[in-house]
Amino acid sequence: MGNSKKNVMSFPKEVQKRIGDELQLIQFGGMPNDAKPFKGVGRGVFEIAVRYDKEAYCCVQAVLLGKKIYVLHAFQKKSKKGIQTPKQDIETIKRRYREAKELAKDED
Questions:
Q1: Strand 68-77 relative to strand 45-52, pairing
Q2: How far apart are CA 94 and CA 77, in angstroms?
Q3: Longest pairwise C-alpha distance within the chain
Q4: For residues 55-72, average pLDDT
Q5: pLDDT (mean) for 35-53
Q6: Residue ranges per domain, the chain?
């Protein structure tokens, strides 16, 4: 959704591969060990967080909408308040989740 793919492609190659591998595992019905529920958005929304070179990269996806996996947002986490996800990123995820739910309705 949105610029998620472009954002992932801007991450370091190692991070791109790890996120790609984990999304593929989800696509085949598995769940990566480091995927965790992303609370406060909706049912079936998960975050994959990858630490690399003292930085954190996140990919948030909805996996229980229709037949597709919707990558809602991908970003480099630069929170100034510990591990908290910045409000702007949460708002982007919520908006794209609503959009993904609408798209999933059209799949039926």
A1: unpaired
A2: 17
A3: 43
A4: 88
A5: 90
A6: 4-105
The owner of tokens 């909805």 is 62
Q: What whole-number distance in Å separates Cα of residue 107 and Cα of residue 31?
A: 23
Enter the pTM of the model. Answer: 0.87
The phi, psi pair for 42, rounded to 5°, reads: 175, 170
CA 98 to CA 87: how far, in whole Å? Answer: 17
d(CA 62, CA 46): 6
Residue-level length of the chain: 108
Q: Kind and range of the H or E element at 5?
A: helix 4-10
d(CA 98, CA 5): 18
| pLDDT confidence of residue 108 | 61
pLDDT for 70 equals: 92
